Amino acid sequence: MATRFSGSDDLRGATFVGADLRGARFVGADLCGVVMRGVDVLGTDIDSPWLGEGDEPLLVNGVDVVGFVDAELDRRFPGRAERRATDPDGLRSAWAALERTWAATLERVAAMPPGTADVSVDGEWSFAQTLRHLVMATDTWLGRAILEQDRPYHPVGQPDAGYEADGNDMSIFSEHVPSYAEVLEARAGRVAMVRAFLDEVTPEVLLAPRRNPWAPEHPETVLTCLHTILGEEWEHHRYAVRDLDAMPPAGVVGDFAAP
C-alpha cells in the first residue's frame, strides 16, 4: 500500500534524495518554493489555478514559464484574455465570450452518451458538480459580496471540500443529489443574473468597496469580485473540458463524489 501524507504531516523543508516518486499524486498541496534538481519530470502533470497570481516565477531549467502557459491558455480558449477587463463594455464582452464558450460545451455534453454529466474522471468533480460549484461561486461573489445579500445561496450549489471544514452552515444546500435538469436550470439562472448585473453596471459602481466573503479583512471592489467570477468560470471550464477529453467513449457513469 502506498504511503499517504495528509495535512497533519509537516513535510516543510524535507529533503528527498534518490527518492522514487513516480506516480505520486499531490492534491491541494503547498509546493511553493520547492526546489528540484536533476529530476526526471517526463509525463508530469501540474495543475495550478493560481499560476501567475503572485510575484514568484515558476522556473523550468531557469526559464520562467508562467507567461508561456498563460498565453497558451488564452490561445486555446478564445475570450479568456478578456477576463481582466476593467470597464463595463469590456466586462460585458468578457461575459458574452464565456457564455458562448459554455454554450458550446453544454451542447457537446448533450451529444455525448447518457450519464456523461455525472462521470467523475480520476476522482475529480463531474461535469454536473462543476456547474453546481459555479452556481455557488456566483452566489458567493455576486450575491453575497457584490449585492450584499444575507441569504444568496441556491440549494443546488456545490461547496468545495474545505467549506464544511471551515465551520460553515451546510444546511443551506440540498441533501439530495439534484437531477442534471435541475442543475442546468439553476446554472442558467445564475448566468442570467451576472449578465443582468453587467448590463447595468457603471464605472462608478465598479470602484465601490466590498468585503471578501472568505477573508473580510481583505479589501475588494466590485471589479475585483467580478474578476474572481470570471476567473472561476474559465478555470472550471478548463477542468471540465480536460475531463470530457479524457472520458471513455462509452460514457459509463463512475464515482462522482467530490475529491
Automatic annotation (TrEMBL):
InterPro entries: 5peptide_repeat, DinB-like, DinB/YfiT-like
Alphabetical list of Pfam families matching this protein: DinB_2, Pentapeptide
Organism of this sequence: Georgenia faecalis
Residues of the DinB-like domain: 97-239
Lineage summary: Bacteria, Bacillati, Actinomycetota, Actinomycetes, Micrococcales
SUPFAM superfamilies according to UniProt: DinB/YfiT-like putative metalloenzymes, Pentapeptide repeat-like
Protein name, UniProt field: DinB family protein
